[in-house]
Amino acid sequence: MYPSEYQRLFENEQHHWWFCARRAIARALLDHYLPPARGRRRILDAGCGTGGNLALLRRYGRVVGLDLSPLALSLAHTRTTTGVTLTLGSLLAVPCADETFHLVTAFDVLYHQWVVDDVAALVELRRVLKPGGLLLVTDSAWRRLRSGHDEINLARERYEVPELRARLHRAGFEPLRVSYANSLLLPLILAIRAARRLTARGWEWPRSDVAPVPAPLNKLLYGVYRSEAALLPYVNLPRGSSVVAIARRR
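Structure (tokenized):
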């Protein structure tokens, strides 16, 4: 990710509709699948970025935020509280002992170019999970939606549900729920992507989708996307701009 994108992420991820709704979905899945044990639970947020999800995860136990970028960690440090530790490192070589964590999360991380082997990264995350521990993954979906936002965020690929499920199996996980997300807004997203392609003029610098949204529209989009949080613990959605998975270490 370009340094300017870390700053943009830091400034927007606490209130932007997309990030807020993603946290709502993550919370719904964790509330559904995690057994009660908050005081004893250890959590790894792999690829924590600028720390937008640390407060959510702190609800469930003590958190270690891991990221490859010193800049991201310096921004995340301003959000840390008691029970949160930040560590420099890669998903491909997590600097923690075997079977350390009860829960590992990877929010939109596996698709990055620096994760050169996503199955190897999943195997490494499995290594640091306790037997029976849970992995929560979110990521971008559907190659048709690839855009300048993917380029500026150094995205390697966008996932399909069958691919992500197969890679979880290969890495030694038992998938409990693998689904698309952000389904209700998919027609709008497709229309915006198509309009940008039609109006593109020659070479243009990649364009990020992370930007402030007028408050009424932000609230509306958040409400539409967040409505999926009540469904995803129980049903798989047929198509969407994101994928979400929760899996157990076998």
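The longest strand covers residues 129-140. The mean pLDDT is 91.
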